[in-house]
Amino acid sequence: MVALLEVEDLKAFYGQTQALHGVTFSLQPGGITTLLGANGAGKTTTLRAICNMVRTVGAIRFDGRPIEGLATEEIVRCGVGHVPEGRGTFTNMSVDENLRVAAYTRSDKAGVERDREMVYEYFPILKARLAQQAGTLSGGEQQMLAISRALMLGPRLMLLDEPSFGLAPLIVQEIFRIMRRINGEAKVGMLLVEQNAALALELADHAYVLETGRIVMSGKASDVKSNEAIRKSYLGY
Amino acid sequence: MEQLLQQVASGLANGAIYACLALALVMIFVSTDHINFAQGELSMFSAYLVWQLIQWGLNFWLALAIVAFVSFLIGVMVERVILRPLHSAPVLSIVVVFIGLLAIFHSLAGAIWGHTIKDFPSPFPNIAFAGSGYIGPHQIGMILVTIALLVALFSFFRFTPLGLAMRAAAQNPASARLAGIRVDWMLALGWGLAAAIGAVAGSLVAPVVYLEPNMMASILLYGFAGALVGGIASPGGAVVGGFIVGVLENLIAYLGNLLEKTTGVYIIGNGEKLTVALIIVITVLTLKPSGLFGHVTVKRV
Amino acid sequence: MTFLDRRTLLAGSGAIALALALSPASAQKKYDEGATDTEIKIGNTNPYSGNASAYGNIGKTIDAFFKKVNDDGGINGRKINFISYDDGYSPPKAVEMVRKLVEEDKVLFLFNTLGTPSNTAIHKYMNQKKVPQLFVATGASKWGNPKEFHWTMGWQPDYATEGAIYAKHILSNVKDPKIGILMQNDDYGKDYLNGFKQGLGKDNEKLIVELATYEVTDPTVDSQMIQLKNSGANVFFNITTPKFAAQAIKKAAEIGWKPVHYLNNVSSSFGAVFKPAGIEASQGIILALYRKDPADPQWANSPDIAAWKAFMAKYMPQADLRDDSHNYGYSVANTMVEVLKNCGDNLTRENVMKQAASLKGYEAPMLLPGIKINTSSTDYYPIQAVRLARVNGESFELFGEVQSNENPSQ
Ligand SMILES: Nc1ncnc2c1ncn2[C@@H]1O[C@H](COP(=O)(O)OP(=O)(O)OP(=O)(O)O)[C@@H](O)[C@H]1O
Ligand SMILES: [Mg+2]
């Protein structure tokens, strides 16, 4: 079986500083993989590197097809939905407009309509907020909108950068529950970046641990979770 | 009273001129976040192209349609060829490029068509109607075309996917890319549309102020003022702002003259119109930085 | 300072060497820098590029005319070397070019440098250097002030003179005049206004019921025209440059204001004013002229017009004959040649100035019949007479006598 995403010896640079020092990992279709690590480990950078948003060296294959060097928007058009750090909603636009922009690349009207309904089902609150300016939504609502926007692309892989960031535990649980549903029902593979390791390991089936730009550990989520030594030394709980 | 009405009508007519150019300015701002100082000269150049086609025997509207399309291509080219390599350059270098463009189009027009003013035909029928003592048919036509342009633009940005994508690309290029939007092309498209609107603005202004390489220099200033008063990010605001500036400058002079007539005290008059208009712009911007009709935007840079 | 001294010394020794080499008959020949037995070097600046480049045709016409003079044998055996630089109508550029002309090219004098701003910028310099700045191409009234500026002289009727003539014409021809004025708010406009007020006289200044000004940066003068119409004025004195003149004429027609309309000579152009404004709307406008309109059939047989046409055909075959610059350039260049002829073999700067200030009844080609050039050591205004004309169809119809403001008391 071809891996959904394969990353090989990936290096990333911000100007002169190197943030990734040869990262290699892969994702199986349909699964949820989590990328863990402390602040500044390079998690966000890895997601950015996949979408060519930083200067990168290395091989990246999506569905067996090399995508390194493609422009961000072209990688997105291959079916990669990136929910970036900070959510990246268009704050001046209404919720409705945000969702329409998200479906900009699609020409299948019926499919877009169906995905709209799906989004409303996952996040009924958004339907009630359609006309509201995205910038005025609550943090949880904004995160829901960010995930919905990635969904409206009709992606095969979602890159999620700390969806729990800054949200109340109850909301986080709600969002993670929906993410599991999306993964199962919409057959979307997920690469989830989290600092909240306990939560992420609950959801994911595979885990990688990053430390200063290098992968220092990987394995099944259940193994990592149950291995106290690893938890203590890398994940701090 | 009679004169007051006439001054307001004439202010509205001038306002339409400013509003039209303000629309083009807003167009570029909305799609690229830049203020295009070369917009006036681009419009002027397009107006010369229309004039040339009319000289060659084409009808006004056909000539305008052709030139609007050609201007669109020129706008796209300017963005792709000249501005594209400067995407990450500091604002100051981009301003310098705009000023360079201004000088180029200005001297090009002078070299090709000379500096003597040229008569530019009005596309609107010269008919008398009730109230034509207050405002001419061309002025009314100009106001209508400006409003039509505004409605068209408004709908484009509101309702079409392409319009939405252009707004998205301008507001947050990184996020727009993550929505699969080809941001570079959106910028070029914005330039193209602004150039096309500029062609309409130039061709409507020329019958009033006469065609010459300088014709847009001061209008750009007023158009800019209008756009700022109304909100540089809002097409509707820019048009209303243009009209406000047009009417206001006439009223200022009118009231100043009236005051001088009745009391003999000179405070303001025709000479201070522009100054007062600019003071109003600054006041508005101080009290409401995004303009009267702009949304408050908190930008993360 | 040392540099200056050395140059004076060099020029002096050159003169001595020349005197030694030449026959005794040449003893009365006198030269300053820029003049020799074979050559007279004349400097000039013109806007050959930029916004005002239409005026550059004046420089081109002068150049062509001096070629003709040289082809015909020159002046008293000397060829004219006319050096004309582009100043783009920019005063700083003009200063730079004029310094080059005076200090490097070492011209005998400057002739017909163009534009009020540029001439103002070099005014002091030329007088400090004691190099003539002759027959400048501007109508400002400040060029006729020999007491303070011995080395500078204008040529055409100055704005103040012209303004005064309109005022006198209004007083004697319009019953119960109420005057509205549209004026460009700068020195040029004020020059006209001051002359106009002088012509009216103190007591009659109250006849001015409305004075509306505009700035060159104003997009239109529409609001000023409405203001003027509502003042109830029945006479309109229009002090505007071509674009605004055209706007004003058109707007007056649009709002149905029909005063007796006087327009300054600055905008006496069919191509740049009356045609764009609308020939219909321009009918009856009164303005002052001092040169013949070559298109006017009544001059078809006058010798100067024929000579001008022959000159244009031979030396400027591509030119647009309706461009007034060719007419103006030809006339002023003829005046210059007349002065140089009168200089004889005494080509010092002082003598050039003296001869320029000694023209008596000279009828330069193209001047309207009855208009003569008179100058003296106290009268530095060569042309001070005009004739009034009306726009009639697509040409000017002259009427009335020559109006003169000779020997003003200023
Ligand atoms: N724009 C940037 N310019 C320079 N260095 C950067 C930039 N963004 C990130 N870095 C550096 O790259 C390294 C990795 O940063 P990254 O954002 O990938 O960490 P992270 O694992 O996502 O951390 P966090 O959990 O705090 O989000 C850090 O040392 C950071 O300082
Ligand atoms: Mg991060």
Structural notes for this entry:
The complex is a heterotrimer of chains A (237), B (301) and C (410). By secondary structure, chain A is of the alpha/beta class. Chain A is built from 10 helices and 10 strands. A 6-stranded mixed beta sheet of chain A has the order 6-7-8-3-9-10, with helices on both faces. In chain A, strands 2-1-4-5 form a 4-stranded antiparallel beta sheet, covered by helices on one side. In chain A, a hairpin with a 2-residue loop joins β1 and β2. Chain B has 301 residues and is mostly helical. Chain B has one domain (2-216). Mean pLDDT of chain C is 90; it is low at 1-27. The longest helix of chain C has 20 residues, at 2-21. In chain C, the strands form 4 sheets. Chain C has a 4-stranded parallel beta sheet with strand order 3-2-4-5, sandwiched between helices. In chain C, strands 7-6-8-9 form a 4-stranded parallel beta sheet, with helices on both faces. The interface between B and C is large, with 40 and 32 residues. Residues 43-44, 85 of chain A line the site of magnesium ion.
What's the structural blueprint in terms of helices and strands?
The complex is a heterotrimer of chains A (237), B (301) and C (410).
Chain A: E1 5-14, E2 17-27, E3 32-36, H1 43-50, E4 55-62, E5 65-66, H2 72-77, E6 80-83, H3 95-102, H4 109-122, H5 124-128, H6 139-152, E7 157-161, H7 169-185, E8 189-194, H8 197-203, E9 206-211, E10 214-220, H9 221-226, H10 228-235
Parallel strand pairs in A: 3-8, 3-9, 6-7, 7-8
Antiparallel strand pairs in A: 1-2, 1-4, 4-5, 9-10
Chain B: H1 2-32, H2 39-55, H3 60-83, H4 91-113, H5 137-159, H6 161-171, H7 173-178, H8 183-209, H9 217-230, H10 235-263, H11 273-287
Chain C: H1 2-21, E1 30-31, E2 39-46, H2 56-71, E3 79-86, H3 91-104, E4 109-111, H4 116-129, E5 133-134, H5 159-173, E6 179-184, H6 187-200, E7 208-214, H7 222-230, E8 235-239, H8 242-254, E9 260-263, H9 270-277, H10 279-282, E10 286-289, H11 303-315, H12 324-343, E11 346-347, H13 349-356, E12 385-392, E13 395-404
The complex binds adenosine-5'-triphosphate and magnesium ion.
Adenosine-5'-triphosphate (ATP) is lined by residues 14, 17, 19, 37, 39-45, 195 of chain A.
